[in-house]
Design brief:
With about 325 residues, this protein is α/β, with parallel strands linked by helices. It has 2 domains: about 5-115 and about 295-310, Nucleotidyltransferase, domain 5 (2-Layer Sandwich), CATH 3.30.420.40; about 120-290, Nucleotidyltransferase, domain 5 (2-Layer Sandwich). The protein has helices spanning about 40-55, 95-105, 115-125, 190-200, 205-215, 220-240, 260-275, 275-280, 295-310, and strands at about 5-10, 15-20, 30-35, 65-70, 75, 80-85, 110-115, 135-140, 145-150, 155, 245-250, 285-290. The protein binds zinc ion.
Length: about 325
């Protein structure tokens, strides 16, 4: 008997995750594989991850109703085209990712920016616990960006760049960023920035960096403070700009790394103690993280797939608002 399944695929610079969820609840299937690089290889890896997730659920492609797909870079939500996904080697010419995956699978596909989809996944998860109108998901991975839910709707901006806070210049004399400007926020607060800090200090993990800082290593203290201060400023920046109810700190660098969250909270407490404005806006309960076993990217991608069918509209043109 054919099962009705919705699938979500979350393509990151390093890993591609897939989740399949039966329409009527029941056992889910999950898999993750290394991401492909270049347009065609990205499609191959995405489809392979989906096939693996289907297998763990004891299902096949013919059971799929629709697929939601999250990808970094500049995503044309209407067409499913992706460009400037530098961590996937997709350049400014772009690649028709949505159309390619759809023709491979033969089901409706909806594509959106990975952080926007993660924001949607986090929003659906958290609003079952408390009412939320506005939420920002700050994703710290290879780079840094934010996904926004405003007035209970995914906010993309006029050209799909809303939330690209990683490319806000905070120090014009700083390092050259992949975007071409100097001293962008993500040159201080991102997985790449952490890599640089580790190389500078000779330790291999973020935890070891913090431990060295606590043990009195001056260089470790300097670079780790720079990292956590800039992450806290990213939280401050998003709060001041959008005044959201909840800011979720997530992404590969933060997930399961309690030390990062603890240090960001310390810095936010310092900002609150220093500034009356920060004190009134940046209340402690606005910042949250998600359980380590909750994957907001694929959860949001499944929600996007459901909306594609439920709204009964042409794929890639649905609204994901509730
Ligand atoms: Zn930049």
């Amino acid at each position: 008997m054919r099962r009705e399944l919705f699938a979500g695929i979350d393509i990151g610079g390093t890993t591609t995750e897939a989740l399949v969820v039966p329409a009527d609840g029941g056992a889910r299937g999950y898999a993750e594989l290394p991401s492909g690089h270049g347009g065609e290889a990205t499609v191959t890896a995405a489809v392979a991850a989906l096939d693996a997730a289907l297998e763990t659920a004891g299902a096949g492609r013919s059971d799929l109703e629709a697929v939601g797909l999250g990808v970094p870079g500049h995503v044309d939500h209407a067409t499913g085209d992706v460009r400037l996904a530098v961590n996937l080697d997709i350049d400014r010419e772009g690649f028709p990712l949505g159309a390619k995956v759809a023709s491979e699978l033969g089901v409706p596909i909806a594509v959106d920016h990975d952080m926007r989809i993660a924001a949607l996944g986090a929003y659906n998860h958290l609003r079952s616990q408390r009412p939320i109108e506005h939420l920002a998901f700050i994703g710290v991975g290879t780079g840094l960006s934010a996904g926004l839910i405003l007035n209970q709707q995914v906010f993309r901006g006029s050209s799909g760049f809303a939330g690209e806070i990683g490319h806000i210049v905070v120090d014009p004399a700083g390092l050259l960023c992949a975007c071409g400007l100097n001293g962008c926020l993500e040159t201080f607060a991102s997985g790449s920035a952490i890599e640089r800090a580790l190389n500078q200090t000779g330790v291999t993990t973020t935890a070891a960096l913090f431990a060295a800082a606590d043990a009195g290593d001056r260089l470790a203290a300097q670079v780790s403070a720079k990292l956590t201060h800039h992450l806290a400023w990213a939280v401050h920046l998003v709060t001041m700009t959008y005044d959201v109810d909840v800011i979720v700190l997530g992404g590969g660098v933060v997930a399961g790394n309690e030390a990062v969250e603890a240090r960001v909270r310390e810095e936010l407490a310092r900002l609150r103690a220093t500034s009356v404005v920060a004190h009134s806006v940046l209340s402690e309960d606005r910042l949250t993280t998600l359980p380590e076993d909750f994957h907001p990217g694929v959860e949001g991608a499944v929600a996007l797939a459901r909306h594609t069918i439920e709204n009964n509209q042409k794929p890639n043109q649905e609204e994901v608002s509730e």
